[in-house]
Structures are given as C-alpha cells and as structure tokens.
Design brief:
Blueprint: E1 2-9, E2 15-24, E3 30-35, E4 40-45, E5 54-56, E6 60-67, E7 76-84, E8 94-98, E9 104-108, E10 112-113, E11 119-120, E12 133-136, E13 139-142, E14 158-162, E15 166-170, E16 183-188, E17 196-204, E18 210-215, E19 220-225, E20 234-236, E21 240-245, E22 254-261, E23 273-279, E24 282-287, E25 291-292, E26 298-299, E27 304-305, E28 312-316, E29 321-328, E30 335-342, E31 349-355, E32 364-368, E33 374-376, E34 382-390, E35 395-404, E36 413-416, E37 421-424, E38 428-429, E39 435-436, H1 441-519
Parallel strand pairs: 14-16, 27-29
Antiparallel strand pairs: 1-6, 2-5, 2-7, 3-4, 3-6, 8-9, 10-11, 12-13, 15-22, 16-21, 17-20, 17-22, 18-19, 18-21, 23-24, 25-26, 28-35, 29-34, 30-33, 30-35, 31-32, 31-34, 36-37, 38-39
Length: 520
C-alpha cells in the first residue's frame, strides 16, 4: 500500500475549508484528514461519491492518501482548500467558523457576545440560584464543576477561560466519570502573571484519553498525560492552554488541577520552586530539589544517611521533599539496589536520584505504589542523593540499600558480598570473570609445570613414607617368626651337648674300671 502525505493551509489563518472535486479511491485505499498539532482525525473517505466539505478549526491540516496494493485502485482524488479568517480574530474570545454563504462568523466563548466577541454578557442568572456560578461585570463566572452558557453544564465542552489569579479546573462536576468523546479546552490568563503553577490533585484517565498542557500563545507542548498517576507540578509562562480529548471506549474519573499565579508567593519562589494553592489563606512555595525556605532561597539539608542493609522508615507531608545521601566514593558495586516501598496506602510517592547534587523532577526517577518495591541500579562512583517527593497526601515509606552480586561465572570466580563485585580466579578477569587475563598467559605454562613437579615431589614423599612404614612392620613380623625357631635350635644344641658330655663321662668311668682291673 502506497502512503503519500500532504500538508495544506497557513498558520496565520483561522480556518481551513476543504472541498473535494473528484473522488475515486477504491478497494482498501482511503484519504485521511487530520487537523491541528495533535493530529485530530477530521474524516476518512473512499469510494466514488464526493465527500462533504470539511471545515477545520485549525488553519493547517494534513491529508494522507493510502492507495490499494491490489485489486481495483481507481483514478484518485482532487480537492480544493480555502483559508478563512475572521474580523479581529474574534478578539481571542471565540472561534472563527465558516458560513455556507461563503463568509465567516465568530462563535464567541461563553459570556462573550458581539460581531468580534468584544462584549460580555450573562446568560440567565449564571446558575446563581443553584450555586453553579454568578454574573460579574456582565459575564458569567462558573463555579468549579460547571461549564457552558449560564454555567448549566456539568461536563466540560468547548473553550473555557480563566482570568483569576487562582482557580480549579476539572473535566466534570457531576457524576463519576467524564463524558465520552469529550473535546475541552481551558485557557488560563491570570492578570499580571509572569508564570503560572499547575498542581494536579486528582488524575485518572484511560490511556487513550489525554490531557495536554501548552504554553500559550506559542502553543508549545509542555506535558502530555494519561493514566492514573498524579502528574508532577507544571510551570508555564504568563498564559497556558489545557486540552482534554477522550474517545468513546472507556471513561474514568478524570482530573482536577489547581493553578496559581506565581506572583502570589514570596519573591515568586526565587524561580526555584512552585507556588501552590493557599493553606489557611497563605500561598506557599514548593521548592525544587536542593532548595528550601519560604521563598526557596536556602539550600536543602540531608534528612538521613543510607547505609548497607540498614533500612530507613520515614513519613513525608504533602507536596514536600526529603533527601538521603549514599556514599559510593570508595567503590562502585556491579549492581547497587536501592529498594523503596510505600508502607501506607495513602498518597502517591516518587523517588529520584542524582549524583553529587540534590535531585529534582528531571532526575532519574521511579514511582512507588502501595507495597510495591522498585530498584534503582547501576550507579557510578560518587556521592548519590535520593529524593522522596509526596504528591498530594501524607505518606510513609521505607528505603533500604543492598549490593546485588554480579552474575559471576562460577567456574572462574565468585561474588564478593561486601562489594557486590566478582572476585575472579587466577588468570580470569572481567565484570563477570568471563575473560582470560592477558598478563597471565605467559606464566601459565610455567605455573602448570611447577604445579606438576610439586605434585610429583609430594607423591615421592608419600611413597617413601609408605615404604619406611612397611619396612618397619615387615621387620617386626620377621623377628616375631625367627625368635621361636632360634629358641628351638638353641635347646636342641644344648641337648646334644649334654649327650656328648654324658658319653665322655661314661668313657671315663669305663677307663677307670679297666685300670682298676689291671691293677688287680
């Protein structure tokens, strides 16, 4: 399928009118038209019938043509576009719309009237009888949660303007959820403001239902938000535009956001913080990371020191910072885990980390939910500071530091639990002991030979010891066998000797007897 985009219009116009003069886009082919910086879909067209005229309230539109990749394709399409502009730009109090007669007209914001929306007016009693609003200076001022002409609407629609120095903006005032297909804009222009702080106190939208905050009139996007976690504070210039667009698939409870002209806070928070809504009638500064004091003019202090396996349990007040230091100047573990968990089910906490300075909303961050543990890992050598930020309510939390061992190659080393690094065996190196140490290669053969010689010497010593022990044992056995035999031989010799002595004595007697006979 071929894809071809076109951009038409001029940013100095108020409207862009698109009229098709030819249409033959067949099969899976189509023409899509989007308006505005957020690419709002204005229509999808195909077939042979001329589409209706498209009026974009944005002066620049994008036309995207997809041609079918197979089958019937058609001869394509042709269109004409016309830029429209209203007198005096509707005094910046309304929208310029096209007339079927060919001209333009201003559709004024609520509370404004006239050809160029130059005059104010009140509709009815502006809901005063129902405490929904009031008429002031010939214009309706709606209470929070009410919208539209006469402050009769309970869900946002169209454009609403806020000129007071403080206020609350919400997508709806009655019911549990915002409307499907909502398309709301809120233009905030406090008197004599140089900057404005927006502080969200409730936030829950479907992921497809997006809240966007712009610097006005530059229309520079500052933040795009969806989901269920409270956004961080936002500071804009002297004017801001908030838009909210939802689809029709799933609606949640929406959002509430307070705004304050920063000039109401002491020294405008020294441009180091945010001016938050009044507590007991006094506006106060919410200082950025690293600063403190009534006007954010002082340097913040450390609330605690993090040590290995020594958890810190602490409590923090709404919209406040607390900081903890972590000394990694002596070593850098392979994986340093800073486990943080929220131990109360109230409030929403965020945790930030920065090296050698106090963290702020732009630092490495993570969010903690009730009993959920998250890990901050792979910190480099230095002094680190962990910042805890409370987003709206008092909350308790727990922080613990633990060194996680590297995934060491157990055949070549082991983990050192005191540092979280691998202690490699001889001739191995690397974070996980995965590489052979090059400086060790030349000595390896010699060390192997020496090892073999030492083994042979040890074996020889063992054999000699075994032989000596065996020889002594054999000698004792031989001696035990020879002793009885020697005794027997000795006894036989003695008996033989005795017999010889007996014979000699007998011969002597016979000789004596013979002599005696002779003498007679």
């Amino acid at each position: 399928m071929e894809y071809r985009p076109f951009t038409i219009g001029h940013d100095w116009l108020d409207l862009c009118r698109i009229a098709f003069t030819k249409m033959e886009v067949l099969g899976s082919g189509r023409v899509e038209i989007y308006g505005g910086p957020e690419a709002i879909l204005l229509g999808i067209f195909n077939g042979r019938s001329l589409p209706p005229t498209v009026i974009s309230r944005w002066p620049v539109v994008n036309v995207i043509f997809y041609s079918a990749s197979s089958g019937a394709i058609g001869s394509g399409f042709a269109l004409e576009y016309t830029g429209l502009k209203c007198v005096a730009d509707c005094s910046n109090r309304g929208l310029c719309q096209n007339l079927q007669t060919g001209g333009t007209t201003c559709v004024c914001d609520e509370g404004w009237a006239g050809v160029t929306c130059q005059a104010t007016e009140c509709v009815g009693d502006c809901g005063a009888s129902k405490n929904q609003g009031s008429c002031a200076s010939n214009a309706c001022v709606c209470n929070p949660g009410y919208y539209g002409l006469g402050c009769l609407g309970t869900h946002c629609s169209g454009l609403a303007r806020f000129t007071a120095n403080t206020g609350i903006i919400s997508d709806h005032g009655v019911g549990e959820a915002y409307h499907p297909r909502a398309n709301c804009s809120f233009l905030v222009q406090p008197t004599a403001a140089s900057s404005i702080t927006f502080l969200f106190t409730e936030f829950a939208t479907d992921t497809a239902d997006v809240v966007r905050v712009y610097d006005y009139p530059q229309n520079r996007l500052l933040r795009s938000m969806a989901g269920s976690f409270l956004p961080k504070p936002i500071v804009t210039g002297s004017s801001a535009l908030i838009t909210f667009i939802s689809d029709s698939s799933f609606e949640l409870t929406g959002f509430n956001v307070s705004y304050v002209n920063n000039a109401l806070c002491p020294q405008a928070c020294s441009n180091r913080g945010y001016c938050i809504p009044a507590v007991n009638g006094t506006h106060s500064c919410l200082c950025q990371g690293g600063f403190s004091g009534p006007n954010c003019g002082a340097v913040a202090t450390v609330n605690g020191v993090l040590l290995l396996n020594k958890p810190i349990v602490d409590t923090i007040q709404p919209f406040q910072w607390k900081f903890y230091s972590l000394d990694l100047t002596q070593f850098t573990p392979y994986l340093l885990a800073i486990y943080v968990s929220q131990v109360s089910n109230e409030g929403q906490l965020e945790f930030y980390a920065a090296k050698d300075t106090f963290p702020n909303f732009d630092s490495y961050s993570m969010k903690a939910e009730y009993f959920q543990e998250l890990m901050l890992a792979k910190l480099v050598n230095g002094t680190w500071y962990i910042g805890v930020w409370s987003n709206g309510q008092q909350a308790s939390y727990r922080i613990n530091v633990n060194f996680t061992c590297a995934p060491c190659d157990l055949d070549n080393g082991e983990c050192d639990p005191t540092t979280g690094t691998c202690a490699c065996d001889l001739c191995w190196t690397g974070v996980t002991c995965e590489s052979v140490d090059g400086s060790c290669r030349n000595d390896t053969a010699l060390k192997v030979v020496i090892g073999l010689l030492v083994t042979i010497v040890l074996l020889c010593c063992i054999l000699i010891i075994v032989y000596v022990v065996w020889r002594r044992k054999y000698k004792r056995q031989m001696e035990s066998i020879a002793l009885p035999r020697d005794r027997a031989e000795s006894n036989a010799a003695k008996r033989q000797s005795n017999r010889i002595i007996g014979l000699d004595e007998k011969d002597d007697d016979e000789k004596a007897t013979e002599l005696d006979d002779n003498e007679r």
